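Batch 3, record 17
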Amino acid sequence: MSKGILAVDNRGKRELGADKLVGWDEVTQGIVLTSFEGDAANIASLKAEERTYSDFNSYTATVASWRVIKPIYNRDICIDCQNCWVWCPDSSIISRDKQMLGIDYDHCKGCQVCVEVCPTNPKSLLMFVEAEEIETALAQWPEKKKN
Amino acid sequence: MAITSIKNLKEFSTNNDRFEGAHTLCPGCAHSMIVRELMNCTDDNLVIAANTGCLEVSTAVYPFTSWDTSWIHIGFENAATAVTGSEAMYRARKKKGTLKDPNAPVKFVAFGGDGSTYDIGFQWLSGAMERGHDFTYICLDNENYANTGGQRSSSTPIGATTSTAQAGSASYGKKEKKKDIVAIMAAHGAPYVAQLAPNKWKSMAKGFQTALETEGPCFINTVSACCTEWRFDPKDTIHITDLATDTLMFPIYEIINGHELNILYRPKNVVPVEEYLNAQGRYKHLFKPENKHVIEKIQSDINEYWDKLQRREEARI
Ligand SMILES: Cc1ncc(C[n+]2csc(CCOP(=O)(O)OP(=O)(O)O)c2C)c(N)n1
Ligand code: SF4
Ligand code: SF4
Ligand code: SF4
Ligand SMILES: [Mg+2]
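Prediction for the assembled complex:
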């Protein structure tokens, strides 16, 4: 996956919940958070890498520490059906121009839904322990199952 | 109106997400699948309000927001009030000519859980529907008050165990029938009312688009499988939802102008309800011999309701 897709300066630095928690009585009532720096009028027409996310946007945070297992993606088998994209609950399947490019490991919680809905044989997404290297995982990918 | 192409998933996937990751919903939670789909099926500006519940607390964890749109939260029960107030103000300012960009397309959407929709925000929702605002209300129906630990709501089905209607030696869980919110909303004379499910992504996207395009108050009940309170493995969210639609526990249909009912999904093979119940911990106790009658009751209720929907579809009443 090209690094450019995820390159936003303020991204992935803060872990959700790691900062000192703000007490309910410390929050100013009627608070307004802005999701972007500057004008956000045409945000639907901009890809993530073209946007200027503000520090308040959870896009800049990470929940990677929630995971104990992670999905690994095998481009060689994928048919770009986009099942994983439509059902990932954490907006963590990165698709551009009808192609699946990979997984956003800052936001993926390791739920395995994408693996379950992947229709290829063998699957193009499989779960591995968090510490697994992508290259070793790809090297041990299972063969096509015959039934 | 900038509607996104939903011809096939490949085209749909060219949309740029406006619901961001690093929210704190449970892994595998269907709430976010539904919300993502709503936000991906249009390019219009959105003004969204959310009732208190899992969705709201998990997407507005101070100092973060997961929403790339205008989003407002006030209280448990009043997303319908907040968003229809915004809609009324928008209309007034348009008339007065005080909007910066009066031609920019804007849609108003409210999200509520079943607790806030069927119970605690019911009167607010009914009022907003009756006043006829141009908005869409989407209920994320996980059949319990999930955010506070799984209490029963009037959407919880017969036989499910919840923290306030527990199954045990003296009880088989909830005894009362699930409230028919779709019929109640259709009875308000709303131009578009539907029940949809995220496993059927296309009919769901189409229903969302229809609701957004339709002028006036629209209501959509969505099936939102909750791995935590329904007690199943998070990886199975779509599988469980498949069982929900294929057993007809959650039939997929729309009602136009209060009477034109269209069934949107007819399973090729209707699955016996045992399979759906057996896949979830909240129904485990029903498989004891003394609770057999509850499963029979659930199945006969399903058959009866499906029959009624088909007759309504035919008669257009
Ligand atoms: C008036 C009021 N009553 C009760 C609560 C406590 N409360 C917060 S979230 C919640 C449960 C929400 O259930 P539901 O609407 O079904 O949404 P879910 O969390 O299941 O998505 C409750 C009871 C509250 N915040 N305000
Ligand atoms: S494991 Fe879950 S969160 Fe991670 S990419 Fe797959 S579906 Fe998304
Ligand atoms: S579900 Fe599988 S085949 Fe389809 S796009 Fe995702 S990885 Fe590729
Ligand atoms: S408790 Fe249920 S509805 Fe709430 S975040 Fe978890 S899975 Fe979603
Ligand atoms: Mg609920």
